[in-house]
Amino acid sequence: MKNLLILKVFVGLCLFWGGSSRIFGQVGFAVADASATAAPKTLTTTDSYDFVSLQKISDVPPNDVPQSVNQNLSQNDSNEHVAPDSVSACDAAASCVEPDCYSSQSAENAQFQLFRGGSRLKVSGWVEAGLYTNAYGAKAAYDPNGDGMLENSGNGPIYGIGRRTTNFNANQILARIAREMDCENTLDWGFQADFIYGMVGTELQSYGDESFDYGWGGGIERDYSLAMYQLYGEVGYKKLTARYGKFGSPIGYSPIESWDKFFYTDPYSYNLVPGTHTGVLLNYQLTDNLTLIAGWTTGLETGFANKYGDDAIIAGLELTLTENATFNYCMTRGRQRNNISDRLANGGWNNDFFIHSLYYDWNISDKWEYVLDSTLVNLNERGGLRYSAYGIGNHLFYSLDDNDRWKIGFRAEWVRDNGILGYTDASGSNNHSDYVGLTLGLNFNPTKHLRIRPELRYDCSYKNAIFNNGTKREQLSGGFAILYGF
């Protein structure tokens, strides 16, 4: 058995290094050419990785497998189903009795072994920088009271705290260390730690209870901050895994990690769902086509201290409908005693919340992919006030060549906000509003290390003048991002 495991590891590494279109050639590295379709937040992992859509070493059959097997793996498929013209490793081996359990895909496919001799301790990461501006030429401005960037300045509130204008910014610098877990036939364990530094650092800190990494690098008063985005351990046996710690949220279609994104900017729904949870999450593969998750968390965006005693449940499922279509549903419900006003603008204290998301992902053909997603948030304050927001997003992607070096995407989103987003005009009034965002993007992968992502975007607010320093109801904007994976 030991010799067989060694052989599997050796064959897997050969596939990784042997010229596959998914591998970019540096010893042990595999950050790939990435078709860069926005990777859904799958249930098999809370931090799905589209840029490393490689088969697991444990999936490689003991005999030789043609390189075409690895080359045909669908880059859009963070859920590990296979494109119509692909052959999975399990099919090639004809020996998979049952699906094995998974650690995070980032751990499975992490790029650099820290120790020789088949160690499963790996490191990986990326750097993303970019420029974004608007047709008004509006500049980013800062609150004189020291509370960070003014929401209506620069490119407006839709891009988050990390989207300044006219400056070339480092948005995400991520470093990851992980031990991959293989529990197909035995009990195994793993862990993952992700550090993120950059413009998005503040929004990934544990500001829900202002503990742990909250304030690292200066917090909200600083443009650049450091966050411990994920820090968790996990154990698993066959179809069941259990994770404990701080982990990325599986709720919502819009990913957090730069390498998972197709578009540079985020949709409105990104601001409706939590970024992280701290707690326990169970993952169980009930059948070949159905995976379930359930767990308990300390509310939203909190650290390990849980200073205010928040609590919530989280549950979801992922169903493979056909070879080319997947349905995902995830929800969380609980109570919070802290003020997470950065995420739920009118939250206040002592709230009951319910958040859910669903999406349908359809690989129409080798060239086309379509995703329909929906998000809903309800927030009830103990004093009787109620807030909500809901919306629908449509995403269409087309590969311009057979190798996914060039890919074009279009996103159309509508959101109805009743106080959750809380965008205000220059006078500070919030009349609630409908928001529409239309985004056209292109992904170019000149090398397997590098991705260039230009984008053009149009936004419209039906009531509130939220753009150009709170004076305009619509805005045309655009820019580009450059990503380098290591």
CATH class: Mainly Beta
Molecular shape: globular
The largest pleated sheet is described as:
16 strands, antiparallel, barrel
- Can you tell me the CATH architecture? Beta Barrel
Q: Round the mean pLDDT to the nearest integer and report it.
A: 77
Question: How do the SSEs run, as a string of H and E?
Answer: HHHHEEEEEEEEEEEEEEEEE
How many strand units?
17
Structural class: mainly beta
Tell me the β content.
Answer: 35-45%
**Which strands sit side by side, in order, in the main sheet?**
2-3-4-5-6-7-8-9-10-11-12-13-14-15-16-17
Name the CATH superfamily assignment: Porin
Helical run tally: 4
Helical amount among residues, as a percent range? Answer: under 10%
Weakly predicted, low-confidence segments: 1-36, 44-110, 341-347
Question: What is the CA-CA span between the terminal residues?
Answer: 33 Å
| Domain tally | 1
* The CATH topology: Porin
Determine Rg (CA atoms, Å).
22 Å
Describe the structure.
- This protein is 6% helix and 40% strand.
- It contains 4 helices and 17 strands.
- Strands 2-3-4-5-6-7-8-9-10-11-12-13-14-15-16-17 form a 16-stranded antiparallel beta barrel.
- The radius of gyration is 22 Å and the shape is globular.
- The relative contact order is 0.14.
What attributes characterize this protein structure?
mainly beta, 16-stranded antiparallel β-barrel, 4 helices, Porin, 486 residues
Layout of strands and helices, then pairs:
Layout: H1 2-17, H2 67-71, H3 89-93, H4 105-108, E1 112-113, E2 121-134, E3 169-179, E4 187-198, E5 225-237, E6 240-248, E7 276-285, E8 290-297, E9 311-322, E10 325-336, E11 351-362, E12 368-381, E13 386-399, E14 406-418, E15 433-444, E16 450-461, E17 474-485
